[in-house]
């Protein structure tokens, strides 16, 4: 894998229910052109051949834009596609078990939802970043409880990037970035946009233009 610099910015999560493979690659190209720094490949279809093809294609595409490809909840696919890492939810593979399979060179992200203690434990078990949310109602995960932005104060001490997730749009992103999150993860607001490249660029601009109340000192 090439060496890619970790950058603050838009974390785009794919919605493969609305795109075929060609449309998915086109849409992801647009958001990468707009400045997305991470794409998470999230596909629940169970179509092994499709998933491997799309993950491979997205890895090549992401690396052309100095962006990471993260695979959702599939360590085997991550390795097969030579992706940069995997993201695990609380009910997915154990973090230590995943690290043993992935080795030290790949990114391991973990969801902690509304529980700062889970975030601390995930980092102790070698997670490279943690996600927090949902901060707003989400059509993707309507079952997840809404968390108050004040939770971010309890994560300021963590030495890894924080990803905010859950119903985020351009307006919602501003206070989260002000509180020092390194990434906002976006699904619907991004893929629903008529001009996906311009919409991604607007997110990227927030990270450049919005003042941050708290800087955890992470070099990104």
Order of helices and strands: EHEHEHEHEHEEHEHH
- Head-to-tail CA distance between termini: 19 Å
Q: What is the strand tally? A: 8
Largest sheet properties: 8 strands, parallel, barrel
Cα shape: globular
Supply the CATH architecture.
Alpha-Beta Barrel
How many helices? The count is 8
Strand order of the largest sheet: 1-2-3-4-5-6-7-8
The CATH topology is given as TIM Barrel
β-sheet strand percentage: 15-25%
Structural class: alpha/beta
The residue fraction in helices comes out at 25-40%
Summarize the structure.
With 220 residues, the protein is α/β, with parallel strands linked by helices. It has one domain (9-209): Aldolase class I (TIM Barrel, Alpha-Beta Barrel), CATH 3.20.20.
Task: Describe what this molecule looks like in 3D.
- With 220 residues, the protein is an alpha/beta fold.
- The chain has one domain (9-209): Aldolase class I (TIM Barrel, Alpha-Beta Barrel).
- The protein is 36% helix and 16% strand.
- The protein is built from eight helices and eight strands; from the N terminus they run βαβαβαβαβαββαβαα.
- Strands 1-2-3-4-5-6-7-8 form an eight-stranded parallel barrel, surrounded by six helices.
- Strand 5 (107-113), helix 5 (116-124) and strand 6 form a beta-alpha-beta unit.
- Helix 1 packs parallel to helix 2.
- The protein is globular and about 40 Å long.
- It starts with 8 loop residues before the first strand and ends in an 11-residue tail after the last helix.
């Amino acid at each position: 894998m090439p060496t890619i610099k970790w950058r603050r910015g838009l974390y785009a999560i794919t919605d493969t229910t609305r795109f075929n493979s060609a449309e998915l690659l086109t849409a992801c190209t647009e958001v990468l052109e707009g400045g997305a720094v991470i794409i998470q490949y999230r596909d629940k279809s169970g179509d092994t051949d499709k998933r491997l093809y799309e993950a491979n294609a997205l890895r090549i595409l992401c690396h052309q834009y100095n962006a990471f490809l993260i695979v959702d909840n599939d360590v085997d696919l991550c390795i097969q596609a030579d992706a940069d890492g995997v993201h695990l939810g609380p009910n997915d593979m154990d973090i230590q078990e995943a690290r043993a399979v992935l080795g030290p060179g790949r990114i391991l992200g973990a969801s902690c939802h509304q529980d700062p203690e889970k975030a601390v434990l995930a980092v102790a078990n070698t997670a490279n970043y943690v996600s927090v949310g949902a901060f707003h109602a989400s059509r993707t995960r309507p079952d997840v409880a809404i968390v108050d932005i004040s939770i971010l104060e309890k994560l300021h001490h963590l030495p890894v990037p924080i990803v905010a997730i859950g119903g985020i749009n351009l307006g919602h992103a501003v206070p989260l970035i002000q509180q020092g999150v390194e990434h906002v993860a976006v699904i619907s607001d991004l893929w629903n946009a008529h001009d996906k490249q311009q919409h991604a660029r607007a997110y990227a601009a927030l990270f450049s233009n919005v003042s941050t109340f708290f800087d955890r000192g992470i070099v990104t």
